[in-house]
Design a protein that fits this description.
The structure is a single chain. The chain has 308 residues and is α/β, with parallel strands linked by helices. It has 2 domains: 1-45; 49-306, no CATH class. β1 and β2 form a beta hairpin. Residues 2-43 have low confidence and may be disordered. It has a 6-stranded mixed beta sheet, sandwiched between helices. A two-stranded antiparallel ribbon has the order 3-5. It starts with a helix and ends with a strand. The chain has helices at residues 2-45, 80-87, 103-111, 125-139, 152-162, 171-181, 192-200, 204-216, 218-233, 237-245, 254-275, 293-299, and strands at 50-54, 62-67, 71-72, 91-94, 168-169, 185-188, 278-283, 303-306. It is built from 12 helices and 8 strands.
């Protein structure tokens, strides 16, 4: 009798366990799916070039947009939401005031090397010859015309060669024209001198190494650019940031180029946003990361959210 009772109890327990097993079969995959979906959603929430800045006593929201300074017209990313956000702002702010009538003259003066060195002094004879040949053969530029300029000028020239298409477009110039059409004031976060000083803090050997890498291995440079471009068009800021900070010769000198400028901009952005609604347009690499503009603004108490 006792054995029969134990057998019945055992069957009852088995029945309960079977029911639990059936439930778990559905619950576990659902739990894993929800976890995956949640993580995927969080990742996708970061996929935007446009971010709204609000809260912290702002009377009107401002926006920040991540640009690529030069891009092929067919790769230009611009949506209705971006147009609406731009239209809703009172002012447009770039890294540098692009509407400054003295900008070209200021930049030209800053390109001249006042140290007494000429361009050849920054390279070995072999390196200088390779650069000279590349500029002449590929771009039709005589290096002697650049002899009194700083090495960073070479980088600016080579960038235009990397973006190789019939019709290139500048985000800054395009956004500025949109703003001027609506009579919006154009302002800047820093002076051209500050921008140049950031690049001048880079070690000369790193800059020279980067220039020679582009000249000696243009196919690798082009592949890297295409990867960055694809990531940019996906509006995937986290991946774009990771690619930038891992770039050879940049990863060890990221402070002056990104982090120091980001930190300096926050106070200036705050001052401008307290006065009016601003559409900020800066290089996309400045936005993401622990020391990126989005994180720094959040630390100051602002709500910063992606606009899809």
């Amino acid at each position: 009798m006792q054995n029969l009772k134990m057998a019945n109890n055992f069957k009852h327990i088995l029945k309960i366990m079977k029911k639990m097993a059936i439930i778990l079969v559905f619950l576990l995959p659902l739990g894993l799916f929800l976890k995956y979906f949640s993580e995927k959603k969080n990742i996708q929430n970061n996929n935007s070039l446009l971010w709204k800045i609000s809260g912290n006593h702002l009377s009107k929201p401002s926006y920040i947009f991540g640009t690529m300074h030069l891009i092929c017209m067919g790769d230009f990313v611009w949506t209705n939401k971006m147009s609406e956000s731009l239209e809703n702002c009172d002012k447009i702010c770039f890294e540098i005031n692009k509407a400054d009538p003295q900008l070209k003259m200021k930049r030209s003066a800053l390109m001249i090397d006042s140290s007494g060195k000429t361009l050849i002094d920054y390279f070995s004879p072999e390196q200088y010859l390779a650069i000279s040949k590349y500029l002449k053969d590929q771009l039709g530029v005589n290096i002697l015309r650049l002899s009194k300029m700083k090495p960073m000028v070479l980088e600016a020239i080579l960038i235009r060669d990397i973006v190789n298409c019939p019709n290139t477009v500048s985000y800054e110039d395009t956004i500025m024209k949109m703003g001027q059409f609506s009579n919006k004031e154009i302002i800047g976060l820093e002076e051209p001198r500050e921008e140049f000083e950031a690049f001048e803090r880079l070690p000369n050997d790193s800059l020279a190494s980067h220039i020679l890498e582009e000249i000696n291995h243009p196919e690798i440079t082009q592949i890297n650019y295409q990867i960055l471009l694809k990531t940019y068009k996906l509006q995937d800021l986290p991946s774009l940031y990771e690619q930038i900070i891992k770039t050879k010769d940049i990863k060890d000198n990221i402070g002056p180029l990104l982090y120091d400028r980001n930190a300096k901009w926050i106070g200036r952005m705050t001052d401008k946003m307290n006065k009016s609604s601003v559409f900020f347009a800066v290089g996309a690499g400045h936005l993401w990361g622990d020391k990126g503009v989005i994180t720094l603004l959040r630390k100051e108490g602002y709500t910063v959210e992606a606009i899809k």
